[in-house]
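Design request, tokens follow.
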């Protein structure tokens, strides 16, 4: 019997990386399944059966809404490792500790082909949910990986090429929360005071059914925008709180919508974490821009509120959210950049337990740009429109294609620069919009951001998705890890991704190429 790990080590070398990808997909589920039956020596701490399935749930008053959703069953592990959200299409929250071994047996019970991606996690290439690994209805893909990430708010969602937008929209998404000793030592609120909040927008027809894009190209160029803001799958969401401090974990799980988050009363947001976990120390912002795929962790202290009072998290208006300044959007009810409430907070009980905001949250070792193999020559990725399609350096996604600048060596640090051309004057300037750029498999650090017209970014911590408003360019430092193979980078505006604003990068094992 083939041991997949060994198989990867043997064939994952150098130029064989691509081949590994192909062969792994052929072996795919069958081999992994066999491994799960005792061949691989992989003994999971956590073993979960996860399926994507169709169902109906109440969202708005009246008719049930047809959705697609993940449902999980815990086969092995602590009961707290799998938390089902009541009355929500969102998948179960998977909770793991750093260092744990996780097996997830994913079964596709929906009509499309699909595959699951673990957004933000550093996993082997064949565990990452690349679209070449899709499985048809009725089949199972077995994931086995060790959680190598630090504590943080990660998530999972489908990744079939061209269908990620509609599948996530239909309800396929869930949180993957990682904990570790460092996080525990920080002394943040836990349990019922640690609250995940998934922000998404949806549109419904008169029979309460989800409406996706009507199919016109301009809508797809902008990305889907719904007029209902759902939090954890609920409309008109309201969070009951006590007079004490909370940890709020926000995920922008929307297809295209960007949130410019702020407290309604103007008090600053206290940010404690981003995509890849806790910051070194808290930072304050009047507002924070949160692009699709990004996470934001807040410290929210309601101790100075009176019982019975309310506050609100809102999204403030901003410019540049729509193609052509929205002039060509054509009838979007709630454009990107509109002002709207996100959720209410209702202070409903007194509690004396006051906790103080820790001034030290975690240790982050900064990369040194001098260590980058291309320190004087950053790789440049232009986010541009070509022939009425969004591209990266003029290219769109091809299943196994890798351009020269998309090849990187294992365990090396590189500088990558993403460039979203200015929204200057004239027609060309107006032909631009925001792009949240995401890299699979690696958490990176933001080295520099240029062209910024506002103060709504938190670039201090670990990131896997970085928002570029029109006119902005961002340099990041990425350490390509110790897993060889094919990974993706793409715009996390899911309609842009589906139209091909996505490319592969290949992590090559150059040392053992002989
Ligand atoms: Cu969250 Cu490739 O995606
Ligand atoms: Cu990802
Ligand atoms: Cu985009």
């Amino acid at each position: 019997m083939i041991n997949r790990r060994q198989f990867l080590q043997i064939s994952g070398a150098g130029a064989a990386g691509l081949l590994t990808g192909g062969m792994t997909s052929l072996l795919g589920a069958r081999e992994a399944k066999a491994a799960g039956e005792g061949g691989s020596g992989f003994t999971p701490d956590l073993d979960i059966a996860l399926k994507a399935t169709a169902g109906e749930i109440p969202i708005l008053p009246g008719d049930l809404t047809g959705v697609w959703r993940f449902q999980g069953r815990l086969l092995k592990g602590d009961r707290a490792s799998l938390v089902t959200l009541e009355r929500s299409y969102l998948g179960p929250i998977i909770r793991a500790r750093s260092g744990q071994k996780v097996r997830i047996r994913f079964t596709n019970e929906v009509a499309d082909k699909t595959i699951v991606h673990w957004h933000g996690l550093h996993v082997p290439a064949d565990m990452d949910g690349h679209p070449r690994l899709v499985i048809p209805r009725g089949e199972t893909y077995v994931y086995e990986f060790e959680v190598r990430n630090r504590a943080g708010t990660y998530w999972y969602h489908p990744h079939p090429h061209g269908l990620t937008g509609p599948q996530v929209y239909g309800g396929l998404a869930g949180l993957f929360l990682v904990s570790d000793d460092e996080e525990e030592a920080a002394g943040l609120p836990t349990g019922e005071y640690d609250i995940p909040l998934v922000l998404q927008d949806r549109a419904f027809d008169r029979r309460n059914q989800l409406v996706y894009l009507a199919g016109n190209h301009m809508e797809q160029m902008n990305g889907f925008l719904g007029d209902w803001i759902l939090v954890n799958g609920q409309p008109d969401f309201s969070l009951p709180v006590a007079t004490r401090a909370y940890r709020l974990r926000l995920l922008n799980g929307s297809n295209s919508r960007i949130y410019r988050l702020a407290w309604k009363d103007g008090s600053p947001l206290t940010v404690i974490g981003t995509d890849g976990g806790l910051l070194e120390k808290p930072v304050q912002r009047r507002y924070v821009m949160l692009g699709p795929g990004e996470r934001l962790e807040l410290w929210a202290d309601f101790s100075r509120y009176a019982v019975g009072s309310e506050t609100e998290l809102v999204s403030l208006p901003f410019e540049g959210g729509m193609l052509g300044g929205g002039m060509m959007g054509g009838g979007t009810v709630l454009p990107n950049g509109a002002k709207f409430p996100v959720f209410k907070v209702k202070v409903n009980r007194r509690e004396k337990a006051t906790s103080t905001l820790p001034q030290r949250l975690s240790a982050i070792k900064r990369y040194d740009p001098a260590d980058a193999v291309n320190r004087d020559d950053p790789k440049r990725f232009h986010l541009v429109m070509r022939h009425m399609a969004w591209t990266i350096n003029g290219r769109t996604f091809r299943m196994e294609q890798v351009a020269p600048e998309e090849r990187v060596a294992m365990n090396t640090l590189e500088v990558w620069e993403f460039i979203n051309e200015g929204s200057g004057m004239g027609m060309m300037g107006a032909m631009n919009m925001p792009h949240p750029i995401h890299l699979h498999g690696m958490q990176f650090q933001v080295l520099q951001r240029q062209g910024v017209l506002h103060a709504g970014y938190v670039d201090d911590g670990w990131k896997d998705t970085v928002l570029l408003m029109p006119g902005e360019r961002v340099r990041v430092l990425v350490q390509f890890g110790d897993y060889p193979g094919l990974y993706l980078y793409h715009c996390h505006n899911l309609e842009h991704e589906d139209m091909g604003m996505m490319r592969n990068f290949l992590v090559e094992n150059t040392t053992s190429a002989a």
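Comment from the thread starter after seeing the answer: thanks! Residues 117, 119, 157, 159, 293, 438, 440, 488, 490, 492 surround CU-O-CU linkage (ligand 1) (CB under 6 Å).
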